[in-house]
Amino acid sequence: MTAPIEVDVPHRLGTAPAKQRIGDGFGKLADFVPGGAITDHRWDGDTLYFTVEGLGQRVSAQMDVSDANVHCTFTLPAFLAMFSDRIRAKLEREAPKLLE
Question: Model-level pTM?
Fold first, then answer.
């Protein structure tokens, strides 16, 4: 495994509305892996854990929701590490859209 990609997404929604919006749209984040799909997801309190699979690879992710911020952590397998800068840029661009 490689170092995880971490992205912070500030917001002004409060925890419950932010969780609702994330729950309604987090599947859109699967496309950062070509052919990716969400294969598992669960909430544990204010943290969403999910797995994206594509290209024979598995990415573990979590989104920790608080009143003013969502901290996203994506752990990439070694094969996808070479794309980490591109993946980070896409996540920084797309993750805030979940809260709109």
Answer: 0.88
